[in-house]
Design brief:
Number of helices: 6
Number of strands: 9
Strand order of the largest sheet: 1-2-4-5-6-7-3
Distance between the termini: 11 Å
Structural class: alpha+beta
Strand content: 25-35%
Mean pLDDT: 84
Radius of gyration: 17 Å
Largest sheet: 7 strands, mixed
Shape: globular
Order of helices and strands: HHEEEEHHEHEEEEH
Length: 241
């Protein structure tokens, strides 16, 4: 199933983009839970429309290490070499948030998958809020996968994040008009936190890539975006004429 334009006719007149995004997040979570994640991990899809930016797919590790299901498993997979590497410095980044914590042991987020929406890109303040949220994940050691298939808004949130992190990098998918998938792996280097990047430019009419989803500093899963996208299209009865 090639990538379709969900934001312009004819498809935008036949199916609502937000319904498809919801189906895609569910397909990604299901793919992770049924085929990729080890027993002590689980994925949850979260969708919230409105002014607040919310995580789309979260991957958790259960503190007690007990199997979550009998079917989950993980195969050894070596991702390709990263597109770029950089040192991270969070000392100059503002974070405005409130944490409510339970002092009992519980699940912790180890990875986040963000499907970009038009509202995330439609004005500078929204782009900055999204970038700050993504930077906060990296600051906390949470790996990140960002997917942008929005064709009705310019603005590049991958580039916005690199600017916020003050990383002078040039990577594929960084132009304002680009569609892209970008994976971020924070890890501890010899003297400071480091980050590895994997980026792919996406194109309408082309297949989607398999991206690395890091659930630990040394454990990456091959997240098949093409398979999950096709599953979501089937769920919404979207097909190529």
């Amino acid at each position: 199933m090639p990538l379709l334009d969900h934001f312009h006719p004819p498809l935008s007149k036949q199916r609502h983009w937000d319904s498809f995004h919801g189906a895609w997040t569910e397909a990604i979570a299901r793919h992770l839970n049924e085929e990729l994640l080890p027993a002590r991990f689980y994925a949850e899809a979260r969708v919230k429309m409105g002014s607040r930016v919310e995580i789309d797919v979260a991957t958790h590790e259960e503190a007690n290490g007990q199997p979550h299901s009998a079917s989950g498993g993980v195969a050894v997979w070596a991702p390709p070499a990263p597109t770029a590497m950089a040192a991270l410095d969070f000392t100059g980044i503002d974070t405005f948030e409130v944490h409510v914590l339970n002092d009992e042991e519980g699940p912790k987020i180890v990875a986040a998958i963000e499907l970009v929406s038009p509202a995330n890109k439609d004005r500078p303040t929204h782009r900055q809020a999204f970038a700050i949220k993504c930077a906060s994940y990296l600051q906390d050691g949470i790996s990140l996968l960002m997917i942008d298939v929005v064709t009705e808004r310019r603005g590049n949130l991958h580039a916005e994040l690199l600017t916020l992190l003050k990383l002078p990098l040039t990577t594929p998918g960084q132009d304002a008009s680009d569609l892209y998938a970008a994976a971020y792996r924070p890890f501890h280097g010899s003297d400071r936190r480091q980050m590895a990047l994997w980026t792919h430019v996406l194109a309408i009419g082309a297949a989607l890539p398999t991206m690395p989803l890091w659930i630990g500093e040394d454990v990456a899963l091959p997240l098949d975006l093409e398979a999950t996208y096709q599953s979501a299209c089937v769920a919404r009865r979207i097909h190529v004429e």
